[in-house]
Amino acid sequence: MALPGSWLLAHRLASRDFPPAPWSASELPTIPAAEENGLDDVVLPNSSWHVRNVPQELVPLVALLEREAPSARWASIVDESARLAEWTGVDADAALRTAELLQIDAAIGARRFADPCLGVGSECNMARAINLVRFAAVADLDAALHGDWSAALRRALTLLRAANDLIVSARTMLGNSVALVFARIATDHARIVVAGYAAAAEASAAPGATPSAAQGATSIAERETLDAIASTLGALARDDVDARRALITECFWIRESLMPLLEDPTNYPGAGGFLAPYLVDPRGTIAASDERFITLMAWVEAPDHATRAPPVSRSYASGPGWWLWNPAGKSILDIAGVGSSHVIARMDELADALFVSRDALRRELSALRE
């Protein structure tokens, strides 16, 4: 009885303290104060956010461009102007939509538009940010169709600035993914508005079209907004999309989730009988979890990251004799294993597509200003 008992205790008492985390929380972006952050009221619990979803039939108007030219999308938007006007027109819901748009403009126009979610386990509804950018883009198209190019371009600029802030402040893998989708929708929307503005400018320059003095004055403000859009594109580089933050946050979350299981055997969720919770090396389990993230970080930071294959996920509870030491800890590690490399690879794809679109917008702005 002494020998088995000693073996059980050796797992539990080999080291009762946990190793320090591989990274410090100081490496993560600082969350701004709630009163200056527009995204707080959108995604956090008990927020004042009450904006409805964009009707499904209007979502294609603000979908990603993919291989579609902005001018072609603008032409289809003009063709759908009656349907868009039906939703934004003067009817029983017009006052409600006006209030919703004011709420959106206040959010994206706040001093900051940063990720307010502390970590993976935070109660945040990040999907609302996608609803926000779609709603703002649809409203912007309505302003453009009514010839209010000054307002349409300003809102497109505000969305781009908000997207920049969200990308550099995103902490979690979900937050980074949402930030990239938000930024891509905002960028493609700006390209569509610029295409519409170019078409309107060409039409006003046609023979017989004589813009008024007021239109000429407005054009100066519009040109300043176009210059500001070009400047905003230069405020964000591909290197600013950083998976390091997502990995650090994920590592912290796994540690916070595992430690209660390792400290108290009664919390053990796995199978293996009544002895299984005691067959745990707490320190070794956390160290193995950290090592998994350190390996992922080495891949993320590698100079050839774009072409290097991600590390293969290890199965801890496998192979001959795996159960001889820390079997419950290894089982917990397999339960807690996540496909982080797949999420990071998807983030890379989203980021690459985003900067292709941003480069295209930069060229389209340059051609418009010539």
Give the SSE layout.
Layout: H1 2-13, H2 40-43, H3 70-79, H4 81-88, H5 94-108, H6 127-145, H7 149-169, H8 173-204, H9 213-233, H10 243-263, H11 282-301, H12 327-336, H13 340-369
Protein described:
- This protein has 13 helices and no strands.
- The protein starts with a helix and ends with a helix.
- Residues 212-217 have low confidence and may be disordered.
- The chain folds into two domains: 2-24 and 245-338, no CATH class; 33-236 and 355-369, no CATH class.
- Helix 6 (127-145) packs parallel to helix 8.
- The chain is mostly helical and 370 residues long.
- Helices cover 60% and strands 0% of the residues.
Quick take:
By secondary structure, the chain is an all-alpha fold. The chain has helices at 2-13, 40-43, 70-79, 81-88, 94-108, 127-145, 149-169, 173-204, 213-233, 243-263, 282-301, 327-336, 340-369. Mean pLDDT is 86; it is low at 212-217.
